[in-house]
Automatic annotation (TrEMBL):
Organism this protein belongs to: Parathalassolituus penaei
Keyword list, A-Z: Oxidoreductase
Coiled coil region boundaries: none
A Pfam family matched in the record: Pyr_redox_3
Gene3D superfamilies for the chain: FAD/NAD(P)-binding domain
Name recorded for this polypeptide: MSMEG_0569 family flavin-dependent oxidoreductase
Length: 420
C-alpha cells in the first residue's frame, strides 16, 4: 500500500461535526481525510421539511471561524438559511473531503494501525474519528407491514410538505420535536391530523420577557456536563422538548390543537387489521409535558428571584386549555379517513461497519467525552457527548478542540514509541 493511502487521522462523516474536526486538525498540522458517503451536509440539505426552522436561537450557532453571521441573532434560521450558513462554513474550512465514498469497514490491526476499507479503495490511519452522528436508520415498527398498501407511509426524514401526501387525513405517530412540528405544519395547511402522542416533554418558547433558551444559558444549564447532570448518561436517551422557532418562535400546545380539531391519542401500540390500537395514556402524556413546561419556568422564577432581576412579567403557570374527555384506545382505520401515516419515532444507530469493542447493548458507543477505550478511536457530534450542545451547533467546537488535543497527545506518544 502506498503512503498516499495513509493518514494521521481518518474522519468518517462530512456534516458539521466532520468539518469542525477537520478545522482543528488543520490547525494542528495533522494529515487527514474526511470520507462522506453522500455529499457534505447531506442531512441538512435533504432530510428536513420545507417549513423547518432551528429550535435554538441563532446566537447559539457558533462553529469555529464562523459564528452566526446574520442580522437576527435572537431569531431562528430556516432550513435554507441554515444550509447557506453551513455552506459558508464548509467553504471557510475547505476540508479534504472525499464525497461519494462510503466506509465499508474499520478495524484496528495488532500494531494499532486502523485498516479502513471504502468504496474507493483501502486506507490506513493512526487514528479514526467517527462524526456520522447517531441517527442512521429510520425507525418504522413492524406493525407498519400489516397496514394496507392504500395508506401512504413515510418517515419524518422523508417529509417535505403537505402537498406530497395524498388527500385525506394524516396520522402522525410521535410527539417529539419532529412529530409535534410536522403535526403543526399539516394542521396549519388545513389537513385533518390524528396525533399519536408519547412521553415527550415540552418547554415554553418565551417566558418573562426572554427566550427560555437565553434564561437557561444565563443559569449555566448548557455548561453542565453529562457527568454532572442528575440523569447522568441516561439524559442522552431522553426525548427532546417540543417547541418551535417558526414565525419568530412560539410554544407548541397540543391541547390548543385539540380545540381546533386535531385528534389526539395516547401511545400507538398495534394494528389489528382493522383498528389502530393506543394506550389509554393521552391525559398522562399531556400532563407530563405540561409539568415539565411549568417546572422549567419555576426554575427560571427561582433564578430571577435569587439574582434580584427585575422583569416586566411576573411568574405564571400554564393552565390547560383542553382536557381529555375520555381515553380512546382504538381507531378504525377505514372509517377515520386516514390516507397517510407519518412515522416520527426517531432513528437507530448503525455502526455495523466499525469493528471495535466499544458499543453497549443498544448499539450506542461507550466513551468519555468522545474518547473510547480503544486507543485512537473517537466519536464527535453525538447528543450529550459532553454537554447539551454537543449534538448541536452550540458546543461541537469545544468538543472537537478537546478531541484534537487528545489526538495530538496520542500521536506524539505513538511516534515516540515507534522511534524507540
Amino acid at each position: 500500500m502506498s503512503n498516499n493511502n495513509h493518514y494521521d487521522v481518518i474522519i468518517v462523516g462530512g456534516g458539521q461535526s466532520g468539518l469542525t474536526m477537520s478545522y482543528f486538525l488543520q490547525q494542528a498540522g495533522m494529515s487527514h481525510v474526511v470520507f462522506e458517503k453522500n455529499s457534505i451536509l447531506h442531512g441538512w440539505k435533504h432530510e428536513r421539511w420545507d417549513s423547518f426552522t432551528l429550535v435554538t436561537p441563532n446566537w447559539q450557532c457558533d462553529l469555529p471561524g464562523l459564528p452566526y453571521d446574520g442580522d437576527d441573532p435572537k431569531g431562528f434560521m430556516t432550513g435554507q438559511q441554515t444550509v447557506a450558513w453551513l455552506e459558508r462554513f464548509a467553504a471557510k474550512v475547505n476540508a479534504p473531503v472525499r464525497e461519494g465514498v462510503a466506509v465499508k469497514r474499520v478495524e484496528c490491526d495488532d500494531d494499532g494501525l486502523y485498516q479502513v476499507s471504502t468504496t474507493d479503495g483501502d486506507f490506513t490511519a493512526d487514528q479514526v474519528v467517527v462524526t456520522s452522528g447517531g441517527y442512521h436508520q429510520p425507525v418504522i415498527p413492524r406493525m407498519a407491514e400489516r397496514i394496507p398498501d392504500s395508506v401512504h407511509q413515510i418517515h419524518s426524514a422523508q417529509y417535505k410538505n403537505a402537498a406530497q401526501l395524498p388527500e385525506g387525513a394524516v396520522l402522525v405517530v410521535g410527539s417529539g420535536q419532529s412529530g409535534a412540528q410536522i403535526a403543526e405544519d399539516l394542521h396549519l395547511e388545513g389537513r385533518k391530523v390524528f396525533l399519536a402522542t408519547g412521553d415527550a416533554p415540552r418547554v415554553a418558547r418565551f417566558y418573562r420577557g426572554k427566550d427560555v433558551v437565553e434564561w437557561l444559558y444565563d443559569m449555566g444549564y448548557y455548561d453542565i456536563s453529562v457527568k454532572e447532570h442528575p440523569l447522568g448518561k441516561n439524559v442522552a436517551a431522553k426525548t427532546n422538548h417540543y417547541v418551535t422557532g417558526r414565525d419568530g418562535g412560539r410554544d407548541i400546545d397540543l391541547r390548543k390543537f385539540a380545540t381546533e380539531g386535531m385528534e389526539l391519542y395516547g401511545l400507538m401500540t398495534d394494528f389489528d387489521g382493522e383498528n389502530l390500537i393506543f394506550r389509554p395514556d393521552l391525559a398522562a402524556n399531556l400532563q407530563k409535558a405540561d409539568d415539565t413546561y411549568n417546572n422549567i419556568n419555576a426554575r427560571i422564577d427561582a433564578w430571577i428571584e435569587q439574582q434580584g432581576i427585575e422583569t416586566a412579567e411576573g411568574p405564571s403557570r400554564y393552565e390547560p386549555v383542553w382536557q381529555v374527555p375520555e381515553e380512546r384506545t382504538t381507531l378504525n382505520l377505514a372509517e377515520s379517513g386516514i390516507t397517510s401515516i407519518l412515522w416520527c419515532i426517531g432513528f437507530r444507530p448503525d455502526f455495523s461497519w466499525l469493528d471495535a469493542p466499544v458499543f453497549n447493548g443498544q448499539g450506542h458507543p461507550k466513551h468519555d467525552r468522545g474518547i473510547t477505550q480503544q486507543s485512537g478511536l473517537y466519536f464527535l457530534g453525538l447528543p450529550w457527548l459532553h454537554t447539551w450542545g454537543s449534538g448541536r451547533f452550540g458546543a461541537v467546537k469545544q468538543d472537537a478542540d478537546y478531541l484534537c488535543k487528545a489526538i495530538k497527545i496520542y500521536s506524539q506518544r505513538r511516534h515516540t514509541t515507534a522511534v524507540a
